[in-house]
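Hello Y.,

Per our agreement to keep a running log of every chain we model this quarter, I'm adding this entry. I've kept the format consistent with earlier entries: sequence first, then predicted structure.
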Amino acid sequence: MKNHERVANLALAGLTVAPLVVKVDPNLNVILTACLTVYVGCYRSVKATPPSETMSNEHAMRFPLVGSAMLLSLFLLFKFVSKDLVNAVLTCYFFVLGIVALSYVLPVWAILLSIICCKATLLPAIRRFLPNHWNEDLIVWRFPYFRSLEVEFTRSQIIAGIPGTFFCAWYASQKHWLANNVLGLAFCVQGIEMLSLGSFKTGAILLCGLFVYDIFWVFFTPVMVSVAKSFDAPIKLLFPTADSARPFSMLGLGDIVIPGIFVALALRFDVSRGKKSQYFNSAFLGYAVGVVLTIIVMNWFQAAQPALLYIVPAVIGFLAVHCIWNGDVKQLLAFDESKTATSEDDDATSSKKVE
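Predicted structure for the entry above:
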């Protein structure tokens, strides 16, 4: 981990816990938290080998439709079923999901929050202290009555999940905003780190589709805002305010992860060309400008805003202008991580045959 990544992790740690001890302006908190989370997730997404699975154009086109169906289903569920019952089921789901996220992906600041100190993530930190067979031997557990469903894990993964279990138990019992934010940030970092758009064409299709999705469900229906307020789970970040009538400002995780995976793609494009963070800087700047615009318009009209309305044009626009200025449009549009992964697998296979 490089120095600038450590600084970003520590800054995010400080910003996360700061409202517990000092008054932090919620608008500034939203902007800095969103930008730092994207920054941390982007650099964690840079790995020695390209991702083996990427999103296709067809999946990107379908994503807003699937998201709309899910959103409407949740809206109807909250309307016709007890809100407490729905949230109880969702809490159980996110309890398990949170344990996995805390075990695998959280950087040093979040592990500190869960009373564990390590260098990067909990699992790699404890592996070296455990016997090799604990790290390598897989345990397979099959669901009763559904024998085709199975879960594979190692003993070291169980050990790594213990602190996360206690942390998620605290979240489930107290629903404290800090626990909510730590889990939400874990999901964001994991999403940006592990999801790959594959190409900028696919990314543009996805962002443009969700641009329309966000505008429709926020401006033309009460569905998005209603679900966000009813959904008592870490699908949004909560920022304490001094207003008793509105104790928290909210930012949906999708407003971080969706643009974040596009910005991360720009960083990996720079790395693949062996150059400094050229297009990453422009895409990241576009994201920051988009978040700032969202906050300005929200405060001006005193109403909820579809963040992607401002973030998507800013991210794509800043990157496009920079790319056109440098004359790299062809190279950027030709970049495809799925093809890179396939070619590397073919090279590895052919080298084995030669041996």
